[in-house]
Fold this protein.
Amino acid sequence: MLDFLLTGLRQSHPDFYFFCANTGSTEGLKALGSGHTDIAWTHLLDPETGRYNTPFIAKYLSGVKTVLVHLFRREIGIVAAAGNPKRIRCFEDLAAAGIRFVNRQEGSGTRLLLDTELEKRQIPLAVIAGYDREVYTHVEVGLSILSGEADAGLATVAVSRLMGLHFIPVTREDFDMVLGQSTYFNRGIQALMDILRSTGLRERFEKLGGYGFEDTGKILYSTL
């Protein structure tokens, strides 16, 4: 999604450059707090409140005047090989013998979601074969399954459809953008928001499925 978003920005505003790194949500917030980045993408679920992203601003950005802007919602779930030959239906099945899992890196929103769901079900991390095998993107999760290197992982429904993989829905998560209050009015940021609100981009992702843009651009939180 973000690659398409930035490509659209370059096509419509070639004078703006955005340099991105796949650090995971937690490291992105830390980088924003330390001044190493201007924007942090985040989709962190707080297990105690059930809320996304807002609770982590106080944790990682104390003393920093920030704005939390909603980008989109996306459907995420357990992804398995086409036809689901291992008959994976739920998180409990990930602990079954012979199921090889591919995980996201520590600190990513997807990893936090997995850990939260496993803890709810009292499933020890040690019984998940492949829990320590980490990749950095949803696409890498899909490719690991497509190549036969893994049997299951967590990824978006869009990735599963692109690669023809089986998808078991888990949740719809909020994907937001955190940035400094002064940065919000930067011309590049406003151009980015225009692309997000554009009909063309939304139609493209509606074809993939699993994305919602109802509150795109809405400021969800601002530090006083």
Summary: The first strand starts at residue 39 and ends at 42. DSSP finds eight helices and eight strands in the chain. The chain has a mean pLDDT of 92.
